[in-house]
Amino acid sequence: MKIEEKLALNKFDIDREIHITLEEEKCRGCDWKPCLYACPAECYVFRENHVTFSYEGCLECGSCRISCPQGAIRWVYPRGGFGICYQYG
Q: What's the CA gap between 49 and 24, in Å, rounded?
């Protein structure tokens, strides 16, 4: 089974409380924007000269937070019972 097929089986219980925040001022100072490439779920997108993100599809790996050289991403796990429920691992 391909990884895409496995990921399609995951269940998300979306919380209204956002578990990722982005400090846009710090983000603007970053030329490379590694969050665009580090996030395996492609939650970060460059649009209209700034980075936007969608936390709803987050795989909770923390790659975005670790990759950000500006420290612009505040990432915590969603509240208990919310977020992704992995079917395979």
A: 11
DSSP 48: T
Per-residue pLDDT reduced to its tens digit, 39-71: 999 999 999 999 999 999 999 999 999 999 999
Residue 44: left if φ>0, alpha if ψ -120 to 50, beta else—which one?
beta
Q: Which residue has the tokens 């019972």?
A: 81
Domain ranges of the chain: 3-85
Q: What is the pLDDT of residue 87?
A: 75
| Integer CA distances (angstroms), 87 to 11, 44, 77, 83, in order | 8, 24, 18, 13
What letter would DSSP give residue 55?
A: G
Domain 3-85 fold: Alpha-Beta Plaits (3.30.70)
H helix intervals, the chain: 3-8, 24-28, 35-38, 63-67
